[in-house]
Here is the input.
Amino acid sequence: AQSVTQPDIHITVSEGASLELRCNYSYGATPYLFWYVQSPGQGLQLLLKYFSGDTLVQGIKGFEAEFKRSQSSFNLRKPSVHWSDAAEYFCAVGVRGNQFYFGTGTSLTVIP
Amino acid sequence: KAGVTQTPRYLIKTRGQQVTLSCSPISGHRSVSWYQQTPGQGLQFLFEYFSETQRNKGNFPGRFSGRQFSNSRSEMNVSTLELGDSALYLCASSGTGLGVVETQYFGPGTRLLVL
Here is the structure.
């Protein structure tokens, strides 16, 4: 069965520090992977996606993610965090039929 | 292009009532999916509609239903509301609906509170 695990419920980083959010997936076929961000009371905004090809994908707001098939991982990174990056981050795997399975999310706090 | 819009944004109902939520997809998008988001269960897939037909359904009781109109707009209905139905309901649209998996673009959600 397909599933997504985000091991870190909450992460706190200092502004300007680097960030890595972990995501592991379980899916038997070729994964279609996504990262979304959600600000309080808002919907989900797409940060980036991986369908195939280059395993390092670039997204909006300076985020990138690396797909590692051997580790079933799709970790999100940002070299320098800004206070406006504080939000909830969700990793998702899309399966046939356009159904998405989401992780439980990682809440990011940025301290000055 | 305008994004996905959902109405109403906030709703308060009492147990036993029914509710209808509306979603207008991005212009040209033909697939609409619905998700329920709660603190305890996270984001859960409800169903997906394409060309006015439900193609895929999550593990929710029959009280949750939906439909899609010829202009791709979609509605979801919850009958006999329970306290546990309090949640943020998110609608997402994707392009042609013909790909194996397509990027989904989310609306702002409808916050439903059941008292």
Summary: The interface with chain B takes residues 32, 34, 36, 41-46, 49, 51, 90, 92, 94-105 of chain A (CB under 8 Å). Chain A has a mean pLDDT of 94.
